[in-house]
Specification:
The chain is α/β, with parallel strands linked by helices. The chain contains 14 helices and 20 strands. Bound molecules: S-adenosylmethionine (SAM) and iron/sulfur cluster.
């Protein structure tokens, strides 16, 4: 979502004459769009500002703006801790950035703008065309969260759940397709909680997917990140007949121990999760799952941890994310006694080894076969391209005639844990 927000911030500031530069020292304004989900991310900002200070030691100080969730959570404290920062802007008020910059230039007074103004934000963004498009483009459809898992800052930094009007979303999709996008990744902290009402009709994520499935020019649809509680039958049914809906489902479970899930206030258990997996696999056995895991949650025992490892093996998750629990100020879990860090590090390493093995095994299944790839980029080396399979696995392949944005069949000749390698020859064989 930060990538989406950063691009939208650029769309806005380009209206008042700013242009991107790849050379940091040439910049007269630097925007650090931040993440607050784990502590490491927060500390990285202060380290980066230290580097900026050094880079600009002998030149005019640039305007330094911190946006995103750290700005929201720490607001004025950031300016107090680091006077090199001129402005903090929360994730629900960045649509005001141009006025704030012009105001700062006039008054030279530090600015702290952290209001939750999500409706106006998207109304304003709707009027600004997207200038930066990729073949696979992100599109935020939902923000915020009402679930309050005990470890998570999102409900405090992004605010309550908000779903964008369906018309606004379709219009942005069309804008993206006209600019060359062929895959849309629908984004939300709880994307499958999407719920918008207009003219006495309720629209859920499944309704939106069905509408997008009809749009000419759009080839692939993905959505991220989902909560198991909102994986309802209508959404599961989309896998029966929406052929553009891709076959990797990112569905965080966090832990394989019901005791820990309860302590996390996750509002689902492993049984519910497995029922979802079973229903979806019944529709299409090629669907794969990926997930998020937190290890070392306060009170996690060796038994709880082993249950998570067993759960991973049982579902066979590919491509997952895993983290050591990071206490976030203001959340209920932050008040709990921390687990031993060395033990948590060891558990994380072992868990990641299990995940890597599954990923490698899954990639091995492609060896010698053809897979459908959306061509996203041309690599510097002549005749080499980059794309992804239906389940998001990166593919680097040779081709004499493929075009960006095309779906091609690639024969896989080698692989490693993260990538497949192969070649494309005139789509002679139908992909599995
Ligand atoms: N809404 C999604 C869900 O319900 O699972 C997750 C979105 S959250 C922004 C992204 C991931 O960050 C989470 O799934 C979780 O694994 C991780 N995360 C969030 N808070 C964390 C914390 N305090 N410590 C470690 N990891 C955390
Ligand atoms: Fe955070 Fe996801 Fe839980 Fe919401 S549902 S509090 S975003 S982990």
């Amino acid at each position: 979502m930060n990538e989406y927000d950063s691009n939208r911030i650029y769309d806005l500031v380009s209206k008042i004459g700013f242009k991107k530069t790849e050379v940091k020292k040439e910049a007269n304004c630097l925007v650090l769009n931040t993440c607050h989900i784990r502590e490491k991310a927060t500390e990285k900002i202060y380290d980066e500002i230290g580097r900026i200070k050094k880079d600009f030691k002998n030149s005019k100080k640039p305007l330094v703006i911190v946006s995103g969730c750290v700005a929201q959570a720490e607001s004025n404290e950031m300016i107090k801790r680091e006077s090199y920062i001129d402005m903090v802007i929360g994730p629900q008020s960045y649509h005001k950035i141009n006025d704030l910059i012009l105001d700062f230039e006039k008054k030279n007074k530090k600015i702290n703008e952290t209001e939750f103004d999500v409706v106006t934000k998207f109304e304003k963004l709707e009027k600004v065309n997207r200038s930066f498009n990729k073949i696979s483009s992100y599109l935020t459809i939902q923000e915020g969260c009402d679930k309050f898992c005990h470890f998570c800052v999102v409900p405090y930094t992004r605010g309550p759940e908000y779903s964008r009007p369906i018309k606004q979303i379709i219009s942005e999709v069309n804008n993206l397709i006209n600019n060359g996008a062929r895959e849309i990744v629908l984004l939300g902290q709880n994307v499958n909680a999407y719920n918008f009402s207009a003219n006495n009709k309720k629209y859920k994520l499944s309704d939106l997917i069905r509408k997008l499935n009809y749009i000419n020019g759009l080839k692939r649809i993905r959505y991220i990140t989902s909560h198991p509680k909102d994986m309802t039958q209508d959404l599961i049914d989309c896998y029966k007949d929406c052929e553009k809906l891709m076959t990797l489902i990112h569905l965080p479970i966090q832990s394989g121990s019901n005791r820990i899930l309860k302590a996390m206030n996750r509002q689902h258990d492993t049984k519910h999760y497995l029922e979802i997996v079973k229903k979806i696999r019944k529709i299409n056995k090629d669907i794969r799952f990926s997930s998020d895991f937190i290890v070392g949650y306060p009170g996690e025992t060796e038994k709880d941890y082993q249950e998570t490892v067993d759960f991973i093996k049982n579902v066979g998750f590919i491509n997952s994310y895993s983290f050591i629990f990071s206490p976030r100020p203001g959340t209920p879990a932050a008040k709990k006694k921390l687990n031993n860090l060395e033990e948590s590090k060891q558990r994380l390493k072992n868990l990641q080894d299990v995940l890597k093995n599954i990923q490698l095994k899954n990639n091995n299944n492609f060896l010698g076969d053809y897979c459908e790839v959306l061509v996203e980029n041309q690599l510097q080396e002549k005749g080499k391209f980059f794309g992804r399979t239906k389940v998001m696995t990166p593919v680097i392949f040779e081709s004499e005639n493929c075009k960006l944005g095309e779906l091609v069949n690639v024969k896989v000749t080698s692989l490693n844990q993260n990538n497949l390698f192969g070649f494309h020859k005139n789509n002679k064989v139908k992909a599995a």
